[in-house]
Amino acid sequence: MEKNKIDDLKKCLNNFSNNTIIIHQNGFIGSTYSIKKLKYFIEYDILNIVDESSENNIKINLNQIYKTENKENEIKLYLDSDITITLKLKR
């Protein structure tokens, strides 16, 4: 993933930090779960999203993301493997 796209993603994720988010995963595997107190870090081109108040987490290889859509309360990630991951801020 290009550096400027990673920087844009970080800006959006910073707005989600320490908040509750709902994660929807669609594709050949579908799931929905929540992160109550979001914390994230990027290490070796892997986006790590963890819940500081539980054991919920997700790891996403940034090199698999070919498109992102950023809105005020939502981030949508499109992955090469026909998976879409949506992160929505819960109000």
Care to describe what's here?
- With 91 residues, the chain is α+β, with helices and mostly antiparallel strands.
- It has a single domain, classed as Distorted Sandwich (Protein Yojf, Chain: A).
- Helices cover 15% and strands 53% of the residues.
- It is built from one helix and eight strands; from the N terminus they run H-E-E-E-E-E-E-E-E.
- The strands form two sheets. A five-stranded antiparallel β-sheet has the order 2-1-8-7-6, with helices on one face.
- A hairpin with a 3-residue loop joins strand 7 and strand 8.
- The longest helix has 14 residues.
- The radius of gyration is 12 Å and the shape is globular.
- The termini are far apart.
- The model has no long low-confidence stretch (mean pLDDT 91).
